[in-house]
Amino acid sequence: MRNIPMVDLKGQYARIKPEIDEAIQAVVDSAYFIKGPQVKSFEDNLAAYLNVKHVIGCANGTDALQVALMSLNLEAGDEVIVPSFTYVATAEVIALLGLTPVMIDVDPVSFNVTSELIEEAITSRTKVIVPVHLFGQCCDMEPIMTLAAQHSLYVIEDNAQAIGADYTLSTGKLTKAGTQGHIGCTSFFPSKNLGCYGDGGAIFTNDDQLASTIRMIANHGQRIKYHHDLIGCNSRLDTIQAAVLDVKLNHLDDFGKARADAASYYTQELAEVDGLATPHLSSFSTHVFHQYTMRIHHSRRNQLQAHLKEAGIANAIYYPVPLYKQLAYQTDANKNLHLDQTELLCAEVLSIPIHTEMNHDIQDYVIKTIKAFFLQ
Ligand SMILES: *Cc1c(COP(=O)(O)O)cnc(C)c1O
Hints:
By secondary structure, the protein is of the alpha/beta class. The protein is built from 13 helices and 14 strands.
């Protein structure tokens, strides 16, 4: 039986091994494990790639969101609007800081929040919107930024899954995912599109003041050593991880292309299959396919999942439970919440293997297995 994994980090490493090994060895030789020169180099290179003024490395993507929220002078009970169809980290940091996550529905076609859905949830206590660019494709940010400006709200983009995607403004100008909001956050978890060899994250902004506050907060609230002006935390991007990322950043666009090519082959072969919907491509954003996520109709998702498993094909459900149904989030507001599209997606989504090392041999096997299921 074949064994097709969701990601192939070993195969990717084998292709870039000499560069990576050299970069890691240089850090080990220097013994400059914390705040080594590779951290600044990577922050500068990522800032140039994203065309954003400031990039601040941190320990992981969850910390990036937490530090971003901490920089905004929010008060207990302030409301932060988040999608209910996302990874828990997005809402977790909000609750952890004593803020109130207000969970909203998503568009069932793009899987993302829209300005219309956000607008319905705005109250006098709303302070922040956190759009998540789910699976590798941007939310439509321009109307979200207009809405935020009308209500004087901050926007923190959770860009953990869409780094490298292009968002097109109505002027036709191309911008990078995560750079429209006041603050953008990303994760370098190994399986993310720009992944390191452990944990890592980054925060980006064009606002000098926010950048300086964010840097302080991630470093125990200090600007001058042993002088703590703010309550901060310890959230650093390790030098070894920065060195790995600096190498991998040079490959990010090629990696993105490999994923997009694999996705378009899947879509070409599966689009006509009755009973499933292949991922939608929006007009305003490219898709970097952190995940290739289909919707499986007629309550057949779990059967297909078992069929794929039987054939040795890994697959995953991102995400099986709406955030507001999670035990940790049973507030009075959430107990009575029913969001139709989120619940539909939790019942229908299925992600199949996609990574930088895909080839037609692997994909033909996956496609054949899926087609066989729907013909039986
Ligand atoms: C991965 C991810 C995070 C958290 O990143 P970590 O580095 O694992 O802490 C946050 N939000 C989304 C949407 C993610 O996919």
